[in-house]
UniProtKB/TrEMBL annotation, chain B:
Name of the protein in its database record: Carbon-monoxide dehydrogenase large subunit
Residue ranges constituting the Aldehyde oxidase/xanthine dehydrogenase a/b hammerhead domain according to the UniProt record: 25-134
SMART domains referenced in this protein's UniProt entry, alphabetically: Ald_Xan_dh_C
Keywords carried by this UniProt record: Molybdenum, Oxidoreductase
Keyword Iron included in the entry's annotation: no
One MF annotation (Gene Ontology) recorded for this entry: copper ion binding
Cofactor(s) named in the record: Mo-molybdopterin cytosine dinucleotide
Taxonomy, superkingdom: Bacteria
One Pfam family cited in the UniProt record for this chain: MoCoBD_1
Record-annotated membrane-spanning stretches: none
UniProtKB/TrEMBL annotation, chain C:
Origin: domain of life: Bacteria
SMART domains: CO_deh_flav_C
Name recorded for this polypeptide: Carbon monoxide dehydrogenase
Domain FAD-binding PCMH-type per the UniProt entry, residue ranges: 1-175
Coiled coil regions, renumbered to chain: none
Keywords: FAD, Flavoprotein, Oxidoreductase
Length: 162, 783, 295
C-alpha cells in the first residue's frame, strides 16, 4: 500500500513495486493532469512537485514516495481562483495542445517559489529546460512565467500595504 | 495582451482561447486519460532486425504470464484477411509481420493483458526465430541491381515505387543549356519525425450487444479514419463511432492509420472488451510515419544580371519498407511542384522517384502541406547558391525574381495558380525589422575581426488548403471540408466541423469566425470537432487546411444562416427583406437605424414567431469545396555566428514576417509561427533519424532524436503583412506550417553566408557542431 | 515502458542496507536518485531482481567539513551544488548546472552518478579534477578509494557486489589560496550527455602561482578521465598563455575518444584542447579579477 499526501489530501492505493509515480497518480489516484510523453526521462510532461521540488514522476517509483507530499496541476487552483501561473498561461497564449502544460506549470511554480530575487528571461528558459514543448516555441511560456511573477509581486505588495 | 471571449466583432482580435481553461487545470481529456470499465491493455512485440525471415513465433510463454489474456500474430491476422492494410499512397502495409520483417521495430505480435505492465511482460515472453537477410539502408543502393528485392509481395521485382514528373523537360534543359549562369546544388533533407509530446494511441471498444465499435483514437482526421477502418475491417461504417479526444499535438503524425490501431480493434472484436493501446515514445519515433528523407538535386539557369531562366529538379525519395506517405492520391510526391517558390521561372521541370528501403514506412507531411518543406528548402537553398555565384546580395536576387503583385493570379510553370501575394512588401518589412543594411555593415566589421557571422534569407511561398475536388482526393474521397451550425432559440450556437484541432485553437478561432458572421461574441459559439457521430464529414486537420477548407465552410454556413435570419428580421421589423441591412452585429431597417434586431431576437423568432410558410429552426450545413488552394508566404531572416573553437552556431536574431491573408486571431497566428519556427530550428540544427549499416535505428527516442529546449531555442521576432486570398470567403490562407516550411533554409543560408567567403555553398542539415568544425578545420578557420 | 517486476527494499540504516545487499549480491541494484537506473529498467536494458532504495538512510545525506576536506554523503543531489557556492571548491557549483536538466538534477545523486560510471558523467570528470576519494562500504568492510582508481571501464567500477558508495571526500586547497574553476560542456541540447566535458580547477597562491590543479574529462574515454599530465604542467607555474597552451595540448593527447555520431575522435580531442584552454583562461581571469569581486 502506498500512502501519499497529494494536493494536501491523504490518498492511498495498492500497487506493484515497479509502478512508476506518474502511473500511480494517473491510474491509481485518477489524477490525469499529469501526462507521460516519453520513456527516457526527457520530456517533463510528467513533472510534479515532490516535497515542493519539481521532479519527473515517470522516473520515480511510487513506492519510493511513501509518506511524502506531492503536488500536481490539479492542486494549483485554490477555492475557485486560478493560480497566477494558470491565469498568465491563459492570458499570454502560453499553451497550445496543452499536453506539456501541466508539467510546465509545476516547474514554473517551483521556480517562482524558490527564486525570491530578480528573474529574467534567461533564468526562466534555464528553469524550464527539462520540459519539452513542441507547440509554442517557448516564447509565450517565458512571457507567462514572468507575468505571473509580476502578478505575485503585486499581490504581495497589496498585502504589505493593506 | 489578449482580450475576453465576450467581446463583439471578434474577427481579427486576440481573443483568449476557449480551450485553455481545461488545459491549465489539467482537465484536458487526452486519449490515455480515458478509462473504460473492463478495459484491457495492449502491447506490441517488435522486430529487432531490419530485414529477416520469420522462421517461427512461439507465443506460449506470453500466455503463461499472469494477467495476459490474448496474443495474436500475423498468421492469425492472415486468417482474417487482415495481415495487410492499404496505405493512403495506394500501397499496402503489414499490420503484423507474416513471412518476414522489413524494418527494425516492425510489428510482429500483439499481446493483451489486464495491465500495461503485464502486456509488456507478455510481449517480452514471446520467442521469435529470425533468419537475418541482407539489409538495404541507402535509397541509391536500393535502386541498383545488387540490392535484394525487398517487397517480394509486389509484381515488379525491384525497389522502385514510382516515378513522378511535372513540367517541360526538354524546354527546361534547352533553357539551361543556353543560360549564361548555371548553378547546381545537392540538398538532402534527412529523415525526421513530428514527435508530438503525446504519442499515438487508441481504445477500441466493441460492444457485442449492439454490434457497435466505439474507437477513441489520437486522430487528426477522424472521418477518414472511420472510412479506412470500415474498409479494412469490414465493419459497416455506421457501426463505427470515432472519437478523437483532446489531441496532444499532431504535426502530421496522427494522420495515418497505424498497425497498432488495427490490432487493438481486432483484439476488441475478439474479446468483446475495450482495448487500450498507447505507444511508447520509442515506438512513436521508430515506427509511426517519418517525414522528409528526400535526396534532391537542383539546377538553376540564370542571366548574368540575376534573372532566373530555368529550374530542373531531380529527387530520390526514401519511403522505407512500405509507401505509407499521406499524400493526395494523384500526388505521390505531394505538392513538391511548388518548388519554383516565389520566383518567376519561365520553365521548370521536377521529377521524383520513390524507393523502398529497410526502414520504417512514411513519409508524412510533417507540419507541411505534402512535401512543401522539401520544395521550399530546396529552392531557397539553391537561390542562395545562385546569389553566391553571381556575387549578388541574396535579398536583391530574390527581389529581381519575385512574382510581382500585379501578376496574381499567377500560373507557375509547374501548374499552380498562386492566389495572391506581395512578396516585395513582405521582404521589405523583414529587412526593415532587422535593419538589413546596418546588419551587413556590422557583418563586415565583425568579419574583419575574424568573426564568422552570417545572414540568411528565405522568402518562401507555401501551398495549402488541399483542396479543390477536381484535383484532390485521399483514397477517392474529395478533400472538401464541412461545417454544421445550429443556432439555439436563445441565440447561442453550436458548430461542428469535419476538422480536428491538436492545439491550433479551433475552438476559439472558428468561434470568432462564426460569431463575426452572425453578430455574436466568441463566447456565444461552441465549437465541436472530433466526433464522427455528430460532426459532418470532413477530411481533417493537417496541411494547414483547416482555415482554408473548414474555415470557408464555417463562413458560408454562417452566411446561409444570416440569409435566413434576414428574412426573419424583416418579418420582425415589418419591412421587406430588401429593406433590411446588416450592421455587423444585427439587422436594421433601412433608413431607420433605431429599429433593430440582433441575432438572438432572430433566433428566438425562428422557433416562436416565423413568417408565414417558413421552415422553423435556424441551422445550416456547408460542404466547402475550395475553388483553389491558398498560397501563404513569408520572408524570414536569420543572423548567426559560429564559434570557431567548437563549431557551435548561435542564432543571434531571427525575424519572421508572414503573410497568411486575413488573420482571425493574431495571438493564435503568432503562436503558430513561434511553434513552427522552433520545429524548423530543430530540423536545421539537431534532428535526424539515422541508421547504421544493419538498419538499426540510431535515434529511437528523445535521447538521440533531439527536441530543442527553451535554452537552445532562439527568441523569435515576428510580424505580418496581410494580402487576403481573393477566393477564400474571409480571405484567410492558413498559417500553421509556414514557419516550419520557411525557416530551415533561413538557418542554413545564414550558416553558409558565414562560411561563404571560404568557398562554402552548402552544409548538410542537421548542422551539428562537429560538422561545422570539420569545415572550419579544412579551411584553416578552427581555433 | 515499464520495468520487469522486482523485489523492493527500503532500509533506513546503513546496516540494514548492507545486510540486504549481502543477501542478494549480484541480483540487487542500489536505487539512489534513479535517474539513470530507472530509465534503463524501463527500457528493459537492466532488470535487477531486487532494488534497494537507500534514500531513507539519512547518514548518507550529510555534508561535513574540516580544515582539510569536505565530505558529502552519496545521496547529496546534483541540485544541492547548483544552489551552493563553496568558495574553496567552486567546481562543484560550476559543474552542477550542466548536468542533465533541472528536473533530473533535483533527483539524481552524486554517489549514484559515480557508481553508475557513465563515461560521459559530468561529476566523474569534476571529481577526478578535485582528486576526490570515494568511501565504499559493505557489511564486513569499508575502504577509501581514490576516484582515479575507482573507474575501471564503461559502467564498471571497483565496487564489489556487496559494496555501496556512501560518501565522497574532496580535499580543500589552502585557505589562503584563491581557487577558480570551470566546467565546459559541449552538448547538443540541454539534457544531452556530454559530447565532450572538461572540468578545470586551479588554486593560486598570492603570487598567482598554481598550487593545485585538476583537469577532468568526460566522454572522451571508456570512463571519465583525469588529465594528470596536463595538471602537472600547471603546478608551480603562473597561468601564462604558453603554459595554458601546453596543458591544453597535453590534455588533448591524454584523452582517448571514439568517433561516433557526436563527432570524430579528432573533433573530440580538439574540443578537449579548446575547453582546457578556455577554462584555464577564464580561471586566470578570475584570479586577476579576484579583488574586484564582492566578498
Amino acid at each position: 500500500m502506498v500512502r501519499v499526501t497529494i494536493n494536501k489530501e491523504p490518498r492511498e492505493a495498492l500497487v506493484e513495486p515497479r509502478t512508476l509515480l506518474a502511473y500511480f497518480i494517473r491510474d491509481a489516484l485518477g489524477l490525469t493532469g499529469t501526462h507521460v510523453g516519453c520513456d527516457t526521462t526527457s520530456c517533463g510532461a510528467c513533472t510534479v512537485l515532490l516535497d515542493g521540488v519539481p521532479v519527473k514522476s515517470c522516473t520515480i517509483l511510487a513506492i519510493a514516495v511513501q509518506g511524502h507530499e506531492i503536488e500536481t496541476v490539479e492542486g494549483l487552483e485554490q477555492e475557485g481562483v486560478l493560480h497566477p501561473l494558470q491565469q498568465a498561461f491563459w492570458d499570454n497564449h502560453g499553451l497550445q495542445c496543452g499536453f506539456c502544460t501541466p508539467g510546465m506549470l509545476m516547474t514554473s511554480k517551483a521556480l517562482l517559489q524558490s527564486s525570491p530575487g530578480e528573474l529574467n528571461e534567461a533564468d526562466v528558459r534555464r528553469a524550464i529546460s527539462g520540459n519539452l514543448c513542441r507547440c509554442t516555441g517557448y516564447v509565450n511560456i517565458v512571457k507567462a512565467v514572468l507575468a505571473a511573477r509580476e502578478r505575485l509581486r503585486e499581490a504581495q505588495e497589496e498585502v504589505r500595504t493593506s | 495582451m489578449s482580450i475576453d471571449i465576450t467581446e463583439s466583432r471578434p474577427l481579427g482580435k486576440a481573443v483568449k482561447r476557449k480551450e485553455d481553461p481545461r488545459f491549465i487545470r489539467g482537465q484536458g481529456r487526452y486519449l490515455d486519460d480515458i478509462v473504460l470499465p473492463g478495459m484491457l491493455y495492449m502491447a506490441l512485440l517488435r522486430s529487432p532486425y531490419a530485414h529477416a525471415r520469420i522462421k517461427q513465433i512461439r507465443t506460449q510463454g506470453a500466455l503463461q504470464v499472469p494477467g495476459v489474456k490474448a496474443v495474436i500474430t500475423g498468421e492469425d491476422l492472415a486468417a482474417m484477411n487482415l495481415a495487410w492494410m492499404p496505405t493512403m499512397a495506394g500501397d499496402r502495409q503489414m499490420v503484423l509481420a507474416t513471412g518476414k520483417v522489413l524494418f527494425q521495430y516492425q510489428e510482429v505480435a500483439a499481446v493483451v493483458a489486464e495491465s500495461r505492465e503485464a502486456a509488456e511482460d507478455g510481449a517480452a515472453a514471446i520467442e521469435v526465430d529470425y533468419e537475418p537477410l541482407p539489409v538495404v539502408v541507402g535509397p541509391f543502393f536500393a535502386l541498383t541491381d545488387k540490392a535484394p528485392v525487398l517487397r517480394e509481395d509486389r509484381e515488379s521485382k525491384n525497389n522502385h515505387i514510382f516515378h513522378w514528373e511535372v513540367g517541360d523537360k526538354e524546354a527546361t534543359q534547352a533553357q539551361l543549356n543556353t543560360s549564361p549562369v548555371r548553378v547546381t546544388e545537392h540538398i538532402r533533407m534527412p529523415r525526421v519525425h513530428p514527435a508530438p509530446i503525446e504519442p499515438c494511441g487508441c481504445i477500441a471498444d466493441f460492444q457485442r450487444s449492439t454490434g457497435k465499435l466505439t474507437w477513441y483514437v489520437t486522430s487528426q482526421a477522424p472521418h477518414a479514419h472511420r472510412t479506412v477502418l470500415s474498409m479494412v475491417s469490414g465493419l459497416p461504417e455506421h457501426m463505427i463511432h470515432v472519437i478523437s479526444p483532446d489531441v496532444g499535438g499532431g504535426f502530421g503524425n496522427k494522420v495515418p492509420v497505424y498497425p497498432g490501431y488495427v490490432c487493438a480493434v481486432v483484439m476488441s472484436l475478439k474479446l468483446g472488451k475495450p482495448i487500450k493501446w498507447i505507444e511508447t515514445r520509442t515506438e512513436n519515433i521508430t515506427t509511426t510515419n517519418f517525414a522528409r528523407d528526400y535526396h534532391m538535386s537542383a539546377e538553376i539557369g540564370a542571366t548574368e544580371d540575376g534573372r532566373v531562366m530555368a529550374l530542373k529538379v531531380t529527387t530520390i525519395a526514401d519511403h522505407g519498407a512500405f509507401d505509407a506517405a499521406a499524400d493526395p492520391s494523384k500526388f505521390p510526391a505531394g505538392l513538391f511542384s511548388i518548388v519554383t517558390g516565389s520566383y518567376q521561372f519561365p520553365v521548370a521541370f521536377a521529377e521524383v522517384d520513390g524507393v523502398y528501403t529497410n526502414k520504417a514506412p512514411g513519409g508524412i507531411a510533417y507540419r507541411c502541406s505534402f512535401r512543401v518543406t522539401e520544395a521550399s528548402f530546396l529552392i531557397e537553398r539553391v537561390m542562395n547558391t545562385l546569389a553566391l555565384k553571381l556575387n549578388m546580395d541574396p535579398a536583391e536576387l530574390r527581389r529581381r525574381n519575385f512574382v510581382p503583385p500585379e501578376a496574381f493570379p499567377y500560373l507557375s510553370p509547374l501548374g499552380w495558380t498562386y492566389d495572391s501575394g506581395n512578396y516585395d512588401k513582405t521582404l521589405t518589412r523583414a529587412l526593415e525589422m532587422i535593419d538589413y543594411q546596418g546588419l551587413r555593415e556590422s557583418q563586415r566589421k565583425r568579419r574583419d575581426r575574424g568573426e564568422l557571422v552570417g545572414i540568411g534569407i528565405s522568402t518562401f511561398t507555401e501551398i495549402v488548403g488541399a483542396g479543390p475536388s477536381h484535383t484532390f482526393d485521399i483514397m477517392g474521397i474529395k478533400m472538401f471540408d464541412s461545417c454544421e451550425i445550429r443556432v439555439h432559440p436563445t441565440g447561442k450556437v453550436i458548430a461542428r466541423l469535419g476538422t480536428r484541432h491538436q492545439g491550433q485553437g479551433h475552438e476559439t478561432t472558428f468561434a470568432q469566425l462564426i460569431a463575426e458572421e452572425l453578430g455574436l461574441s466568441a463566447a456565444d459559439v461552441l465549437i465541436e470537432e472530433g466526433d464522427t457521430d455528430t460532426a459532418p464529414y470532413g477530411l481533417g486537420t493537417y496541411a494547414s487546411r483547416s482555415t482554408p477548407t473548414a474555415g470557408g465552410a464555417a463562413a458560408l454556413a454562417a452566411r446561409r444562416i444570416r440569409s435566413k435570419a434576414r428574412q426573419i428580421a424583416a418579418h420582425l421589423l415589418e419591412v421587406s427583406p430588401d429593406d433590411v441591412e446588416w450592421d455587423g452585429t444585427g439587422f436594421v431597417a433601412a433608413g431607420a437605424s433605431s429599429r433593430r434586431v440582433n441575432m438572438s431576437d432572430v433566433a428566438l423568432a425562428a422557433y416562436t414567431n416565423l413568417p408565414q410558410g417558413m421552415e422553423p429552426g435556424l441551422e445550416a450545413t456547408y460542404y466547402y469545396d475550395p475553388p483553389n488552394l491558398t498560397f501563404p508566404n513569408g520572408a524570414y531572416i536569420a543572423v548567426v555566428s559560429i564559434d570557431r573553437g567548437t563549431g557551435q552556431v548561435r542564432v543571434e536574431r531571427f525575424v519572421a514576417v508572414d503573410d497568411c491573408g486575413t488573420v482571425i486571431n493574431p495571438m493564435v497566428v503568432e503562436g503558430q509561427v513561434h511553434g513552427g519556427l522552433t520545429e524548423g530550428f530543430g530540423i536545421a540544427f539537431m534532428q535526424e533519424i539515422a541508421f547504421d549499416e544493419e538498419g538499426n535505428n540510431l535515434s529511437p527516442n528523445f535521447m538521440e532524436y533531439l527536441v530543442p529546449t527553451a535554452v537552445e531555442t532562439p527568441k523569435w521576432e515576428t510580424d505580418r503583412t496581410v494580402t487576403p486570398s481573393p477566393h477564400h470567403p474571409i480571405g484567410a490562407k492558413g498559417v500553421g506550417e509556414s514557419p516550419n516550411v520557411g525557416s530551415p533554409a533561413a538557418f542554413v543560408n545564414a550558416v553558409v553566408d558565414a562560411l561563404s567567403p571560404y568557398g562554402i555553398t552548402n552544409v548538410e542539415i542537421p548542422l551539428f557542431p562537429w560538422k561545422i568544425w570539420e569545415i572550419l578545420k579544412e579551411k584553416g578557420l578552427a581555433m | 515502458m515499464f520495468p520487469y517486476p522486482f523485489r523492493y527494499f527500503a532500509p533506513t540504516t546503513p546496516e540494514e542496507a548492507f545486510g540486504v545487499l549481502e543477501q542478494y549480491g549480484d541480483e540487487a541494484k542500489i536505487l539512489a536518485g534513479g535517474q539513470s537506473l530507472l530509465p534503463m529498467m524501463k527500457l528493459r536494458l537492466a532488470a535487477p531482481g531486487v532494488l534497494i532504495d537507500i534514500n531513507g538512510i539519512s547518514e548518507w545525506n550529510r555534508i561535513t567539513e574540516d580544515a582539510h576536506a569536505l565530505t558529502q554523503g552519496s545521496l547529496i543531489r546534483h541540485s544541492h551544488w547548483e544552489h551552493t557556492h563553496h568558495i574553496r571548491i567552486p567546481l562543484l557549483y560550476e559543474t552542477a548546472g550542466h548536468i542533465a536538466d533541472p528536473l533530473v538534477r533535483n533527483r539524481g545523486t552524486v554517489g549514484g552518478s559515480l557508481a553508475h560510471a557513465d563515461p560521459a558523467a559530468d561529476w566523474g570528470a569534476s571529481l577526478l579534477a578535485l582528486k576526490a576519494q570515494v568511501h565504499v562500504q559493505s557489511r564486513v568492510r569499508e575502504r577509501w578509494i581514490a576516484l582515479r582508481d575507482f573507474f575501471i571501464d564503461t559502467f564498471v567500477t571497483v565496487l564489489e557486489p556487496q559494496e555501496i558508495v556512501t560518501a565522497i571526500q574532496i580535499p580543500l586547497a589552502s585557505e589562503t589560496d584563491f581557487t577558480g574553476a570551470r566546467y565546459l560542456k559541449l552538448e547538443r541540447k540541454v539534457g544531452d550527455f556530454a559530447v565532450v566535458g572538461v572540468a578545470v580547477t586551479c588554486s593560486f597562491n598570492d603570487q598567482g602561482i598554481v598550487t593545485e590543479a585538476g583537469i577532468g574529462l568526460a566522454a572522451v574515454g571508456a570512463s571519465p578521465l583525469s588529465a594528470s599530465g596536463a595538471e602537472s604542467l600547471l603546478i608551480n607555474h603562473p597561468l601564462t598563455s604558453e603554459v595554458i597552451q601546453e596543458a591544453a595540448e597535453r590534455a588533448a593527447e591524454e584523452c582517448d575518444p571514439q568517433s561516433d555520431r557526436r563527432g570524430s575522435e579528432e573533433y573530440k580531442r580538439a574540443m578537449v584542447r579548446v575547453f582546457v584552454k578556455r577554462g584555464l583562461r577564464a580561471i586566470q581571469a578570475d584570479w586577476e579579477n579576484r579583488l574586484k569581486k564582492p566578498a
